[in-house]
Amino acid sequence: MKPLRTFTHAIALASLLSAASFTVQAEDILINGIASENIVDTKVLAVDVDKRLVTVAGPDDSQVPIQLSENAKDLHNLKVGDQVNIKVNRSVATVLDTTVGGEPGVSKEAGVIRATKENPNPGGEAFRQVKVTSKITKIDLKTHEVTLLPPDGPQKVVKVEDPQLQERMKNLKVGQTVDMVFTDLLKITTKH
């Protein structure tokens, strides 16, 4: 991923994330999962505490202003020249709920962990998780297709290409649900 794009994603997550956590139940089966990690190291170029605006070094000697919310409690401790490390982890998991009778829906959870008295340097951790549940309405073993009813409307047909998953399709039942779980984790650390 290009440095500016990675940096932009990290900053976008910094402004969007709050916190989250979902647990996987024993009757849930992981179908697929992917994860990525991006790390950006930069330094503080300017701090305007009154406007809650921090400018950091971007790629190619650019300057990137970041507007912080009221949640940034220890902004007064941030100084020009401080080193900033931004780590973004993203994952997407597809999970089959083997119980029958679930309904389409969307659920969200989020949370934030901030600096402590023992570590007054500005920074913190935030995480967000969104779970989108779709209901299985049809299974076609000959064409390797599963029809899903997502929470936002018309049914969608998914072609199962993976031979191992095609073999497991015979265990599916109409009425089971498939969850897409999107997780974003952001950790910002600073040091003088």
Task: Please describe what this structure looks like.
The chain is mainly beta. The chain has one domain (3-191). It has 2 helices and 9 strands; from the N terminus they run H-E-E-E-E-E-E-E-E-H-E. Strand 1 (28-48) and strand 2 form a beta hairpin. The protein is elongated.
Note the quaternary state here.
single chain
The total of beta strands comes to: 9
Biggest sheet details: 9 strands, antiparallel
Shape: elongated
Structural class: mainly beta
| β-sheet strand percentage | over 45%
H-E order? HEEEEEEEEHE
- How many structural units, i.e. domains? 1
Q: How many DSSP H or I helices?
A: 2
Helix content: 10-25%
Short description:
With 192 residues, the chain is mostly beta strands. 10% of the residues lie in helices and 51% in strands. Residues 13-26 have low confidence and may be disordered.
Question: What labels would you give this structure?
Answer:
192 residues, mainly beta, nine-stranded antiparallel β-sheet, 2 helices, 9 strands, 10% helix, 51% strand, elongated
